[in-house]
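FIELD: query
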Amino acid sequence: MTYKILSVITFLTISFAFTTTETLEATNIAEEPIELVETSEINLTVEEEINKVYSDFVENNSNVPDLDSFKNGMMGYYKLSDQNAFEKNILTIIDFTLSSTKKRMWVLDMTNNKVLFNTVVAHGKNTGSEFATKFSNKVNSLQSSLGFYVTGETYYGKNGYSMFIDGMEKEFNSKARERYVVVHGASYANPSFVSKLGRLGRSYGCPALPTAINNEIIDVIKDKSVIYIHSADKTYLKNSEMIKA
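FIELD: result
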């Protein structure tokens, strides 16, 4: 019996010794100073972020909007994103500072920084001849409206496959639905029309597209993507809340 008791005591003593040693080693490891790796976050301003995105577009594409229209477009795009106003990461920029003979509409893939389409686009009959200079949100004005839109549903009308757009700026384009300002194709918006008149034909206020690519563009931008119609119009640039930082 005495032998058995001594054996048990000896076993417990050895076990305690190993356990204590292991515990001490674990404690020592835990208490050793840990070298901290410094991490730094680069916080860009909104303008710096936009400039970075623009540089990526310039690098990835042969033809992009100019920086002014892009910056304004991105400001509104960010604000509409904060409002969860759109579902597709696509921004369409129409630059009405350019002649109607120029490819002044860009459809931009904001996820991959790619230009999906670059084409001519017509402006309203009472907005100007070759250049778009007068804008309105009034019914029956036959003028184009500036600012930000979110694309809606499609339908077939007298101009074929067409798409509703909803104006997001009360003062400048909120009556788009009421005015039936929509995206549609038109023969007068075909580039060949320029050789006849020296400019594109004009719509009743709609951003009309060449018939050859109208359907394809609409299918890409329909159902809640962003459209920005840009101009050097002083009233819009001064009063639009969407393009302010």
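FIELD: remark
Residues 15 and 229 are 80 Å apart (CA to CA).
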